[in-house]
Amino acid sequence: MIGKNKIVFLYNEYEGMTFHLRKSSITNKIEIITDFIKEVAINVDGFEKWLIDFLGEYKNSNRDINIVMKNIDVIKKFCDIYIENKNMDFSRFVDESKTKKNSIFFVESEIKDIIRVSSYLKIYSLIFNSTNFSLSDTGHKMVYNEFISEIVEKGIVQKIFTVIRTKTFRYNITDRYMWEYIKNVEYKDAESYVVEIFNFIMNHIIILCQEDRNPITFFVSVIDDSIRWFLRSVFKDNILYQDTISTEDAYGLGKDNLKTYGYNDTLSRLIDISVNRIYIKLKSDEKVLDFKDRLSGVKHISPMIEIVSYPILSKILNIPYSHFSVISPENAVLLSYVTSVLIKEGFDKKFLNICKILEHYPESQISLITTYRVKGVGNICDLFREGGNFIGFKILSIPLNVLSFFIGRMSRVEYINIITGERMGSIPLNSIEGELLEFYIPFFTGGYKKETKIMKNFLYENI
């Protein structure tokens, strides 16, 4: 039975299971899901009994992910049998004569695979689209990735992504001045919007594909509607920040392309946190405009970002350190600011000088060389002895040279506060050195586990 924002499965006259539905695009089209489940129950022997047993076992297990995982292949089997029994003609969605030289062409088997995955997700949506029976975010990702694994391995997801990218950038050409306005006012451009549409289609739209409709045409209509809606709503009152992260072109057909966009999407969420916290501190519109002008003028990256911010974010988010090398200075200082927030969350009132520098950016070019040498060698020896090794190295000269290089380059440069625009007062290098020694070597020799967990939990709760 379907009620307002809920689905009720009756096992018998007296027992049932009620799924309270999330507010989502899927719930808005819930009849597509329920009609499909009814069709499978009518056309595939054993499905209805299995579904009741599966849902009952899952309910009694207190949402045990293992119940879902062990039934993934069963769900696939029932859906595949249904599709084969219906003898669907997917060739009607394929017209090779209309393709051009550079067209993104989906063959019949790829269309079929998309419909198959959509059918799997329809059954699974009973769980993930409910508020009272859904898995944890981590558990959902595991199950979801299992259901779409085949179209990922076959490159079909990459093709869908390429269609989105191509359509979006056609709008970028035809509505060039509007996109420029969006980029200047909202810090959002076509690149970042590609990721948003891709996530929306993969999480909310692919499940709504129907066997009598071409899924690619469906996706394209969603892309067009999404972009038109976005372009019409650029003058809304609130300011959104979803900037593109990399300074290098991330496009192409390489196998790591989607992974790169995943990293960028995660970092853009951190930038959202950073900007939202800064806006709260600024309070007035005039200060917000001053901040945006100041941010656009950031041209250089502080060594403190490279030695503290990037390593922390890399370790917590499992993003390769090398990925941070393509981040623009504007985004780098915003990631730097959110790192200072993380350190304060994890270490309370420790490392205040490090946090202070992370909230500032260098006014001029940082020197590429330095003759500075760490003075507290004895402290390094003690810390190094406790940790055992430094990122796999047992040679003391490694952390000595790393810290000397970064600390020395911090001097002789004026720093500007990203929030207030005020110049930073001088901090003695020995104070910076002391805090970096206390932080850096334990952090990279397996220490600060409790603090790292606090920082990680804070990030995952806010991203």
Provide the fold topology.
Elements: E1 2-3, E2 6-10, E3 16-20, H1 25-28, H2 30-43, H3 47-60, H4 65-86, H5 108-128, H6 137-153, H7 156-174, H8 176-186, H9 190-205, H10 215-232, H11 257-282, H12 285-296, H13 303-317, H14 329-347, H15 352-358, E4 360-362, H16 377-387, H17 397-409, E5 415-417, H18 429-444, H19 449-462
Antiparallel strand pairs: 1-2, 2-3, 4-5
Q: What coarse outline follows from CA principal-axis ratios? A: elongated
The side-by-side strand order for the widest beta sheet comes to 1-2-3
**Distance separating the two termini:** 36 Å
Q: Number of folding domains?
A: 2
Coarse structural class: mainly alpha
Strand content: under 5%
How can the largest sheet be summarized? 3 strands, antiparallel
Helix content: 55-70%
Can you tell me the residue ranges where pLDDT is under 50 for at least 5 consecutive residues?
173-177, 234-244, 247-255
The strand count comes to: 5
Mean pLDDT: 79
The radius of gyration computed from the alpha-carbon positions, rounded to a whole number of angstroms, is 26 Å
Q: Figure out the total of helices.
A: 19
Give the SSE string. EEEHHHHHHHHHHHHHHHEHHEHH
Relevant terms:
two-stranded antiparallel ribbon; 3-stranded antiparallel β-sheet; 463 residues
